Amino acid sequence: MSGTSRIRTILSNVSISLASIALCLLAVEVFFVVRHESVISELEKGRGERELCTLSSPIPDLIYTGRPGKCGKNSRGYKDRERSFDKSEGIFRVVVIGDSVASGHGVPIENSVASLLEEDLNQTASVEDKVEVVNLSVTGYSTSQQLIVLEREAFRYRPDLIIWSYVLNDPFHPIYHNPNGEIGLYHYRPSWHTVHFVDKKLFLIREKFRKKNCYGNEIHLSQHCIYREEIKANIQQIGRVAAAEGVPILFVIHPIFDGESGFSPYLLATVHEELADFASTAGLSVLDLADSYAHHDPGELALPMLKDYDPWHPNKKGHAIAAEALFTQIVQAPVFKLWLEEHK
């Protein structure tokens, strides 16, 4: 066989091998696409006749948003009254970023922390409708999603102050950990399902490996140990955005309602202390609501469930206590005191 013939044979074999690999990859991709659509179909069946309160987001990297005009949402998909990007002269505007806790899951909008805070601040201002608290919180958003809201949405409202509502499940991955009750899974459409599958497996392997260096099985304690550096980096990014925009951010830490020990002692106090240290170092003001809740039984403050109570979401009383603590801190904030002096 001549040299040319051997080269042709080798190239032919390579082409056949590459074609075989491509066909195998295509078959695998088709398998994962079909499986994903089957999961979506099951989620649809599980929803039944209930109204769909979310939709896939047009904003890159943001998986979903609230459905405008549905399920108590305003025209931009937030659980809030209608708000304009324009801000009238003399208005002091606060923007709240968070998840279902800050959005007021389980309580009427008028009893949410944002609405109560707006009412209290307006009474202090002594001029009706001079303080606006715009709530951009969305159920199920973790820190990665909230950062997108901060960077691409929040400053369109021209805020004077931003409240960052931090809940201890915020470090969870929006898809791989499913902190949003499968809302994220329903709306997420990977470019390549095979790559997504491999990436998830690697993600979980890395998490398992990191967990070996952490102690305790409590999920919030474990996640804050495993993802300590990512959490720190995210809070630093919040601080950088605040500095670049010249808008102060108040970092509010929400405790978990622990039915066994309550707040005496509070088993996650060390996590709160570390978060407060990260936030202070990043140039943010800090409010730890565990201090405000300390003299109450968790059962008094949490939403009820069938067998127990919700460990994350406050009820009306919980929202009222949080709003009072926020009010006390904000009226002492230099940015608010300066505005109040100028608009008496």
Structure described in brief:
The protein is of the alpha/beta class.
Explain what you see.
This protein has 344 residues and is α/β, with parallel strands linked by helices. Helix content is 49%, strand content 12%. The chain contains 13 helices and nine strands. The protein has helices at residues 3-47, 100-103, 113-125, 143-152, 183-187, 193-211, 219-226, 228-245, 269-281, 289-293, 298-301, 316-330, 334-342; strands at 54-56, 64-66, 92-97, 131-135, 161-167, 249-254, 285-288, 302-304, 309-314. The strands form three sheets. The chain has a five-stranded parallel sheet with strand order 4-3-5-6-7, with helices on both faces. α3 crosses α12 (316-330) and α8 runs parallel beside α9. It is globular. The protein starts with a helix and ends with a helix.
Low-confidence stretches: none
- Across the major sheet, the strand order is 4-3-5-6-7
Proportion of β residues?
A: 5-15%
Question: How large is the count of helical segments?
Answer: 13
Major beta sheet summary: 5 strands, parallel
Structural class: alpha/beta
Helix content: 40-55%
